[in-house]
Amino acid sequence: MNWTTPVELRRQVRKLWDRGQLLAELAGGESIFPRRLTLKTPTSTQLASDFGAVRDWISRLRAGAGGTETGADGAGADAPGRNHDADAGGVHGSGKYRIQWREINHRVLGRNRVPTAVWLDSLDQALALRLDVFTDLKLPVRRVFITENEINFLAFPRLAASLVIFGAGYGFEEWSRISWLQKQEIHYWGDIDTHGFAILNQLRRIFPQARSLLMDRETLLAHRRQWSTEPKPQKRDLPRLQPAEAALYDDLRHDRLGPSVRLEQERIAYSRLLDIF
């Protein structure tokens, strides 16, 4: 059967990533969502002759979406092969993609629904599906650099056996599924401000081996003319910081260097990055 599987849906999202469309939206470009993905579905003949295979396909498609939809009795309203009264234009949950359904009247099993389309409603859904592809990668790298700024990500120097990831802020919970990252040497490069250190603290909850990059006192003081003001600084304790990081964080959150001091990573001299390597 050549019906579209979750693996093939992930490949479609990977093409969006490779073309730069997801990254463009991350950077504030024009939205491409909601976006309909290509879905090859069973023919009328296949629905009539091999509904068992169709049910298996529906189960895999629903599992790949990751969301849930329940009927009035709490059971899965779109469970394959289940008779129920449902709108022909029904949708499936709020997982990694949205499944649009159509109603059929099977000659043996009666009234059922089958997928007719798959939609990505948001960038978050696309990135969640993209992460599934990332989880399965097997890359010849030993160092991973995470940067929070698009300019720094694009301009990062090419290094042997290394990978650069555009982190784009908080939210590393999903990264815990990427088992191969646990074995890598991880370097995090964020802004030198309270939120930059808070993100580093959060990252270390998933990857305790993560090291900070150019987030030290010497770098901050060497770029005094590039300082700006951080809006709404963090004040809470960050227990996963190293002693030197914690000391600098304390100075920032208590305004010992000035009010709400901030050094954005893209303002750091590029030569300073090159000197590290």
CATH class of the largest domain reads Alpha Beta
Q: What's the count of strands? A: 10
Q: Number of helical segments?
A: 10
Gross CATH architecture of the largest domain: 3-Layer(aba) Sandwich
Task: Quickly give the structural class.
Answer: alpha/beta
The domain tally reads: 2
What are the salient characteristics of this protein?
2 domains, 35% helix, four-stranded parallel sheet, 10 strands, four-stranded antiparallel sheet, Dna Topoisomerase Vi A Subunit, Chain: A, domain 2, 277 residues, 10 helices, single chain, alpha/beta, 17% strand
Care to describe what's here?
The structure is a single chain. This protein has 277 residues and is of the alpha/beta class. The protein has two domains: 6-123, no CATH class; 137-276, Dna Topoisomerase Vi A Subunit, Chain: A, domain 2. Helices cover 35% and strands 17% of the residues. It contains ten helices and ten strands. The strands form three sheets. The protein has a four-stranded antiparallel β-sheet with strand order 1-4-3-2. It has a four-stranded parallel β-sheet with strand order 6-5-7-8. Strands 9-10 form a two-stranded antiparallel ribbon. Helix 7 (194-206) links the parallel strand 7 and strand 8 (211-212).
Write the layout of secondary structure elements.
Layout lengths: L5 H13 L2 H6 L8 E3 L6 H6 L1 H15 L25 E2 L5 E9 L3 E11 L2 H13 L7 E5 L2 H6 L6 E5 L18 E5 L4 H13 L4 E2 L4 H6 L5 E2 L13 H11 L7 E2 L7 H7 L1
Parallel strand pairs: 5-6, 5-7, 7-8
Antiparallel strand pairs: 1-4, 2-3, 3-4, 9-10
Helix pairs in contact: 1-5
